[in-house]
Amino acid sequence: QQEKEDLKGKLKLREHLSQTVGKSEATPAPSKNIDLEKKQLQCKLKNSTAETTKQSTTIKSLKNEVQEKDIRIRELQAKISELERDLTLKRHLIEDLRSHLKANQENEKASNETLERLERKVKELAEDKKTSIDSLKQRFNVAMKEKSQYEQMYHKAKYELEKKDLKLTKLESKMTETECAMTDLEATASQQLHRLAKQSAQALETLQKELLLTSDKVEEFMTFVKTLTRELHHSVQELRTKIKLAKKMGGMKACKKGLSQECLQLAASILNVSTTDLYEILQEGDDEETAKTKMEFEKDKEWLQHIQKLLEAQFPFASYLMDAILEKLNEKKKLVEEYSSLMKHTV
């Protein structure tokens, strides 16, 4: 643009000189010196006109270059906008995954609280059952003591049989009543024991259903975490592949700059391969890149094993699992930034 402004200034100067020369031609010059000066000015005018034409051509070519660069800038801005939209979508996806994880953690906490409450109820029922059994045992012991006392009284009455026949009859009737009371007491105790056993069985069945529901929820959470880790692993691998391809494309462009097109075509014709295959041959043999790829594969394998160990570990493990997933997400974010930077430089 600065060269364009300079050329415009020079063009205006040339036009001014042309106008000045035209005015000088309009004035009559009776002397030969004036004619000579007129010819010189005409020559200068022709030179100025040629220079002006040349500068105009240059200005037109510069305008075309400026238009091409503007078009290129608009294309790059469109690509940047698209990448920003992708980044925004990925951030929203991460936020959704975090909210889902938080909801699952809250559900798990609620399930654990419900399980603890049911366990306390079972313990209370067992204690109540034990208390009832102890009470029945005490009552049975008391009844047995009474029976023993009545038997002693019976033996005493039998000892005095000849003297107290009437008392013996009364004692026998009392013994009959006591036995009836004992029978009723035993029947009542049996019914209470049966009812308590039925209630305990119902409580245990309800607890088993709750445990099965909790187990299903935990299984769903494990499936979700495994799917999330697989998707993260796959996404990171894809980004690494794209970065390697972008680096290779950059290397191919650098190779194009270092070698002339005629040399590359000559080498490709000698090797009987295409120019693109020749670029790939030039890029092969990078031992450092191979070692880096192997190290990344080992790290991914260790990360997946770490996630599996966390899922198989005892509670609580949510914070460790969150740290491991955030580590992979940060790695993915760095890879996305690196890939965006490579794509900008490549373009």
TrEMBL record:
Q: Give a yes or no for keyword tRNA processing in this entry.
A: no
Q: Which UniProt keywords are present, listed alphabetically? A: Coiled coil
* Biased segments, Basic and acidic residues type: 1-17
For this protein, the record's InterPro entries field holds: CNTLN (IPR038810)
Region spans: Disordered: 1-37
Keyword Coiled coil (UniProt): yes
Segments traversing the membrane? none
Instruction: Provide GO CC annotations from the record.
Output: centriole; centrosome
Official protein name in the record: CNTLN protein
